[in-house]
Amino acid sequence: MRFSAFSVLDDHPERRADRGGDRYEEALALAREADRDGLETFWVAEHHFHSGGVLPAPAVFLGAAARETRRIRLGVLVAVLPLHRPRELAEALLTVDHLSQGRLEIGLGSGYIPLEFQGYGEDLEHRRQTFDARYPELLTALQGEPLPAPGSPEGSVRLNVQALQRPHPPLWMAVQSREALPYVARRGLSVAMIPYASMADLSELKNRVALFREALPPGANVRVAAAFHIFVGRDPRPGLAALRTYLGERLSTQSTHYASRAGEDPQGSSAEGLVSRGLALVGRPEEVLAQVRAIEATGVTDLFGIFDFGGLSPARSRASLRRFAALIGLPTGKQDAATPETPGRPGP
C-alpha cells in the first residue's frame, strides 16, 4: 500500500487567531513535511464560497508547491469539471506538470456541494451529465490533440503547453456513491473514495473495492485510494476535538453525502463512532498501525491521510504526519539535505 497526504484546507480562523499565520502557508509547510517524510503524493481539494475548503484555485497552489518540494507528486482531488471550461482547466494543470517536472496527478469529479454550483450559476441536478459532456474535450486537451475552433484559420487549435507525462498525467476520479464505481472502472481510471462520508465501516469499503475491480476492463492498470483523517499521538484528545470541529463544518457547508450519513446513523458518524469503526485513524501509534493494516486488508492500494483538519495547529499536524511516516516505515527526513537554501526555488 502507498501512502499520501490530502489537505482539504478547511479553515477555522477562530482557532488560528492565537498563532497567526496564513492557511496557504500552513498547507505549503505540510507539503514540505510530506516531501521530507517520504509520502507518495500531496493532494489538495477544490472548494468555493465557504470555509470548509478555502482553495478555489488548486493549480495556483500546486505551482507554488512544485517549487518548494523535490520528490513528492502533487495532485488535485478533485478538479470539479462542471465548474470549468475544459481547455482552460487543462492549460492550468499542464502548466503545473511542467513546473513540477512531471509530478502532477489529476483527480476529477462532478461536485456535490449546492452552494458551489449556485455561486457559479451551474445546475447541480445535472452535474453528472455536464461532466460527461465536458470530459472528452478535457481529455483531448490533456493529450495535446486538436480542439475544435471554427473561427480559427485551421478550424482547430492545440494547447501551447503539452504534458510532460504521456499521454497525460495520471487520472483519478473521486466518488462518494456505490453506484458510481462501475462507471469509473469502465473508463479505466483510478478511483478515490472518502469512507467517512458515505460508508458504515471497513467491510463496506472492502465490498466497494471488490465491486470496482469486478467492473474493470481486462488489463486495466489502476489504483484504488481511500482517504482518512489521521492523528497519531499518545494523547488522542486534540485529534478527536479537531475531528468534531471538522465534521460540524461539513454539516454547515451542506456536504450532502456526510449529512445523509449523519442523519441515518448519528452515533456511527460522530468523531468517536468513526474512530471505533476504523473510518478515522485517531489514537496512539499502535492503535493507528492496527487500523492501517485493517485498511490494507480491504484491497485499498493507496491511503490518503488528512493530517491538517478541524483547526489543528500546524505544529501538531506536521508532528502527526512525521509520527505516521515513521510508524509505517517510510524513510523520514531523507530530503532534508536537499532542501533549497532559498525557499520556493529548486536547488541545482
Summarize the structure.
With 348 residues, the chain is α/β, with parallel strands linked by helices. The protein is built from 14 helices and eleven strands. The chain has a single domain (2-335), classed as Alpha-Beta Barrel (TIM Barrel).
What does this 3D model show about the protein?
- By secondary structure, this protein is of the alpha/beta class.
- It has a single domain (about 1-335), classed as TIM Barrel (Alpha-Beta Barrel).
- The chain has helices spanning about 15, 25-35, 60-70, 85-100, 115-120, 125-140, 180-185, 195-200, 200-215, 235-250, 255-265, 270-275, 285-295, 315-325, and strands spanning about 1-5, 40-45, 75-80, 105-110, 145-150, 155, 170-175, 190-195, 225-230, 280-285, 300-305.
- The strands form two sheets. Strands 1-2-3-4-7-8-9-11 form an eight-stranded parallel β-barrel, surrounded by six helices.
- The longest helix has 16 residues, at about 125-140.
- The protein is globular, with a radius of gyration of 20 Å.
- The two termini are about 30 Å apart.
- The relative contact order is 0.15.
- The model is unreliable at about 335-348 (pLDDT under 50).
**N-to-C order of helices and strands:** EHHEHEHEHHEEEHEHHEHHHEHEH
Assign a percent range to the helix content.
40-55%
Which percent band covers the strand fraction?
15-25%
Kindly, what is the distance between the CA atoms of the first and last residues, rounded to a whole number of angstroms? 32 Å
Q: Give the helix tally.
A: 14
Number of strands: 11
Profile the largest sheet: 8 strands, parallel, barrel
Total count of domains: 1
CATH architecture: Alpha-Beta Barrel
The CATH superfamily bears the name Luciferase-like domain
Instruction: Report the radius of gyration as a whole number of Å.
Output: 20 Å
Average of the residue pLDDT scores? 93
**Which parts are unreliable, with pLDDT below 50 for 5 consecutive residues or more?**
335-348
- What's the CATH class, please? Alpha Beta
Outline: globular
CATH topology: TIM Barrel
Looking across the biggest beta sheet, what order are the strands in? 1-2-3-4-7-8-9-11
